[in-house]
UniProtKB/TrEMBL annotation:
The keyword Nucleus does not apply. This is Metallophosphoesterase. Keywords: Signal. Residues 111-317 form the Calcineurin-like phosphoesterase domain. The keyword GTP-binding does not apply. It comes from Aquirufa regiilacus.
Length: 421
């Protein structure tokens, strides 16, 4: 008898779920080789249930607590495996799936999409998205990194709905793992990490479960994805000690050094919002946030042989030479001193055991576009564009790193290759 009552209660809870409407998502968070968090929102509180399947075997995950913001962990998955899934239903559809990350240690080739300064509801935002949809047809990105200013104007929950979820849901959010970083607009111009809805909407893998050193902070974390170590930092957060990333010290920087020192993967990409070098809509010579990043952080990236630092904030595309020791203003750049690279052809670098300089990319035109400050283009830039939006596709295999900047009109605007033996 007891069993029957329990069963009815359970069924009543699920029945309510069937009447509810999904009003956000589903979207995928903290994807690792063996797990994923599936997030979605319903218009009324319901139980959470996901059906998922691989190779015809259907599994189910249920949480009977009634909520509107649902987070369900699917665990014990197999690496590099595609699971179709569905909320509270077995009616699977082809474009609702998760592909788990490659097994740790795998050098499997991966494709990563980096997007910055996008959620403004503009025609350019949609054109950039369409350009990536078209460009990656048949070879979809495996992971998606966000460079901040994800939802204008103040990172409010309703701004995320209108300018992020309503735009990317169908094409990307239901099947592409996001590893985000926040910008000044996501923080509403503040520096208090308890403020941004960003931290409620997203779940970052901050306990080392996606690889890398545990940070225990959702502001900054790292992910081992195939042959690339991805490090997400937060340029906006002020620590209780008063320190920020741009100060070059504090908890975030201590963690970064530990994380980079522990890394064994062949490629390191560090990403965050405010760039150390830009002359687009923001000027790193005079804006203190960026000037301090240049003066206090670039030597750390060099010391740990970071391959690429990619940021947003400035609504342009800028790509630097591989550089070391350029901590001064734009005018002090001296190619004979600061470029550290062996180039075998234009935009094609080969690096030995001592590495090369760090390449800095600004890709802040995923929605917002334009701007230039005195001195644009920078002396340290190989290529710049402030007239059309775009975003970055990185194809990374064990010995080869290829970055492409795809414009919103579909044209390949810039490209370089690094080969490392
Ligand atoms: Fe910004």
């Amino acid at each position: 008898m007891k069993k029957i009552v329990f069963f009815c209660l359970l069924q009543a809870s699920i029945c309510l779920g069937q009447n509810a409407q999904v009003i956000r998502g589903p979207y995928l968070q903290s994807v690792t080789p063996t797990s994923v968090l599936v997030h979605w929102r319903t218009n009324v509180p319901t139980a959470s249930r996901v059906f998922y399947q691989a190779k015809g075997k259907v599994l189910e995950k249920l949480d009977t607590n009634r909520v509107t913001d649902h987070v369900l962990a699917l665990n014990q998955l197999k690496p590099s495996t595609r699971y179709t899934y569905q909320i509270d239903s077995k009616s699977f559809v082809a474009d609702r799936y998760v592909v788990t990350a490659p097994a740790f240690g795998s050098a499997q080739k991966v494709r990563i999409w980096a997007l910055g300064d996008f959620g403004d509801g503009s025609a350019s935002q949609k054109a950039v998205m369409k350009s990536i949809e078209a460009y990656t047809q048949g070879n979809r990105p495996d992971a998606w990194i966000w460079l901040g200013d994800n939802a204008y104007n103040n990172g409010k929950d309703e701004e995320y709905q209108k300018n992020v979820f309503d735009v990317y849901q169908q094409s990307f959010l239901q099947n592409l793992p996001i590893y985000p970083s926040p910008g000044n607009h996501d923080y509403g111009g503040k520096h208090d990490p308890s403020f941004p809805p960003y931290f409620k909407i997203f779940n970052m893998p901050s306990e080392g479960q996606a690889g890398g050193v545990s940070s225990l902070s959702e502001s900054f974390y790292s992910v081992n994805y195939g042959p690339v170590h991805l490090v997400a930092l937060d340029t906006e957060m002020r620590e209780s000690s008063g320190m920020m990333l741009k100060d070059g010290k504090g908890e975030q920087v201590d963690w970064l050094k530990k994380d980079l020192a522990a890394n064994k993967l062949p490629w390191v990409v560090v990403y965050f919002h405010k760039p150390p070098y830009s002359k687009g809509s923001h000027d790193s010579d005079i804006e203190l946030d960026m000037k301090s990043m240049r003066e206090n952080m670039t030597s750390i990236f060099e010391e740990y042989k970071v391959d690429l630092v990619i940021a947003g904030h400035s609504h342009v595309y800028e790509r630097s030479f591989p550089m070391r020791g350029h901590a001064g203003v734009n005018e002090t750049f001296d190619a004979s001193k600061h470029v550290v690279a062996q180039s075998i052809a234009p935009n094609q670098y080969v690096v030995g055991p001592n590495g090369q300089g760090v390449i800095y990319v600004v890709s802040g035109s995923g929605g917002k576009v334009g701007g230039q400050r005195p001195g644009y283009p920078m002396k340290s830039s190989v290529y710049t564009n402030n007239t059309i939006g775009g975003s970055v596709i990185m194809d990374v295999s064990k010995h080869r790193f290829n970055l492409k900047w795809i414009q919103s009109d579909g044209v390949l605007g810039d490209e370089f290759v690094i080969e490392k033996k």
